[in-house]
Amino acid sequence: MHGTDPAIKAVPGFVGSNLDRVDHIRTNPALLAETFADPAARLLVLDGLEPVEVNGHLLLEPLEPHAQVEDHLLLGIDPGKRPIFARLVADLGPNLVPTPRSRAIAGLVPTEEVALYGTARSLVHWHARHRHCSVCGGTTQPAKAGWSRKCEACAAEHFPRTDPVVIMLAEHRGRILLGRQHAWPPGRYSALAGFVEPGETIEEAVARELFEEAGVRVHKVRYVMSQPWPFPSSLMIACIGQALDDALTLDPTEIEDAFWCDADQVRAAMAGDPDAPFLAPPTMAVAWHLLDHWLADVAAASLVSAGASA
């Protein structure tokens, strides 16, 4: 159920992959060589880390005749039985931050292709930044079709990392807490977020981050949804927690401003109303869908209340 426009895509950006990740091929050199030689195999073309879009689709090309399997990673096999590869890049240069071009891809190509790009970007980025072993400092080489790297010196195996991040709404008496970072565009507010630390659960991370950034204590934390975020490689874990009160004590190094917002104000912002009290996050972000989920909960609760009083 949507709390706003049902025409909006039901999933955030980078969600919805339709690839078979074929672990049995990744770990079998003979099968990998056979897959790489398949005439149906395609290369996902990237400009460094940037997507290349042509006529509403990511650019996929046949593998070059003299291409070497060790220079590529296997992203998976698509529903058309085409193996999809990406080229490994030794040096991506110093500028690896996301650009408007990479963020805009979510509005230009189908959902499954956005997910394909997100996977490729995360992996290519990881390989470029992990050419040396964190155990002994030796040189590492790609292994398992690009899904790991192995040290030539000590044989330690390293795997692509994904950093868990909680992104959450605190709810108190029909309102939710929204905040903004210093670097965001004027007027932009969103859910608060922070990295999960070693030794804590998702629920504990939600409670800690809300208290550290806004001074808000929460309980009854519930999971809503998740989103891979390939800038460079995070898993956004969206949650809602019930606040014990609405008093705020902001950490000015993390949060420029925050306020409690009711459903009508959220609905106006997500509809693009120029008189809304804040600029909503983009629809590709899980924060937008978290807000939409909360509005749907509010609407459902109103229907239950109306039915009970009828």
List keywords for this structure.
Nucleoside Triphosphate Pyrophosphohydrolase, alpha+beta, 2 domains, metal ion binding, NUDIX_hydrolase_CS, single chain, NUDIX_hydrolase_dom, 310 residues
Topology:
Blueprint: H1 23-26, H2 29-36, E1 42-44, E2 46-47, E3 50-51, E4 53-54, E5 57-58, E6 60-62, E7 72-77, E8 83-87, H3 100-104, H4 111-129, E9 140-143, E10 148-151, E11 157-158, E12 163-172, E13 175-180, E14 192-195, H5 202-214, E15 218-229, E16 234-243, E17 257-262, H6 263-270, H7 286-309
Parallel strand pairs: 1-8, 12-16
Antiparallel strand pairs: 1-6, 2-3, 4-5, 7-8, 9-10, 10-11, 12-13, 12-14, 13-17, 15-16
Q: How would you explain this protein's 3D organization?
A:
Strands 12, 13, 14, 15, 16 and 17 form a 6-stranded mixed sheet that branches. A 4-stranded mixed sheet has the order 6-1-8-7, covered by helices on one side. It is of the alpha+beta class and about 300 residues long. The chain has helices spanning about 25, 30-35, 100-105, 110-130, 200-215, 265-270, 285-310; strands at about 40-45, 45, 50, 55, 55-60, 60, 70-75, 85, 140-145, 150, 155-160, 165-170, 175-180, 190-195, 220-230, 235-245, 255-260. Strand 4 (about 55) and strand 5 form a beta hairpin. The mean pLDDT is about 95. Helix content is about 25%, strand content about 25%. It has 2 domains: about 25-160, Nucleoside Triphosphate Pyrophosphohydrolase (Alpha-Beta Complex); about 165-305, Nucleoside Triphosphate Pyrophosphohydrolase (Alpha-Beta Complex), CATH 3.90.79.10. The chain is elongated. The protein has 7 helices and 17 strands. Helix 6 crosses helix 7 (about 285-310).
